[in-house]
Design brief:
72% of the residues lie in helices and 0% in strands. By secondary structure, it is an all-alpha fold.
Length: 136
C-alpha cells in the first residue's frame, strides 16, 4: 500500500493536493484527524500536569487553525506527482503517529507522544517549504 492509499484508507474522501481547493481540504482533513486523536487521548487519560496540558493546547491550536503562511506556499506550488507523493509521505507519518494515541495506556507516555506528533507537523512544514522555489 502506498502512502496515498494508506491515508485514504483512514480518512474518508481524502482530498489530495491536485488543486488549491483540494489542498485546503487535505490540510484540514489531516489536521482534524490528528486533533480528534489527541482529544480522545486527553479525555481518556486526563488530568495532566501543566507542561503536558501546554503541549495539548499547542497541538490543538495547530490542528484547529490553518497555518496561513504554509497554505500560501502550498497554494503557489506547482506540484507534480513526485511532489504530491512527498507530501503524502509526511501526511501518512503524521496520521500514523496520531493513530498511536489510542494505544497509549499510561500518562507517562503522553508527553513523548505529543512531542513526536509535534515533530511530524514540523516535518510536514519543512517539506512544504522545501518544495517552494527559492526567491533571489
Amino acid at each position: 500500500m502506498d502512502d496515498l492509499q494508506a491515508i485514504a484508507a483512514r480518512i474518508t474522501a481524502y482530498a489530495d493536493y491536485h488543486d488549491e481547493t483540494a489542498r485546503h481540504l487535505a490540510d484540514e482533513q489531516v489536521r482534524a484527524w490528528a486533533g480528534e486523536a489527541i482529544s480522545r487521548l486527553r479525555e481518556r487519560l486526563a488530568p495532566f500536569g501543566d507542561a503536558v496540558n501546554d503541549q495539548f493546547d499547542e497541538l490543538l491550536l495547530i490542528c484547529e487553525f490553518t497555518d496561513q503562511v504554509l497554505m500560501r506556499i502550498l497554494n503557489h506550488l506547482a506540484l507534480d506527482s513526485a511532489g504530491r507523493a512527498q507530501i503524502h509521505g509526511v501526511d501518512r507519518a503524521l496520521v500514523e503517529t496520531a493513530d498511536g494515541a489510542d494505544r497509549i495506556a499510561a500518562a507517562s507516555e503522553v508527553g513523548p507522544f505529543l512531542s513526536g506528533l509535534r515533530e511530524r507537523f514540523a516535518e510536514r512544514t519543512r517539506l512544504i517549504e522545501s518544495l517552494a522555489p527559492r526567491r533571489a
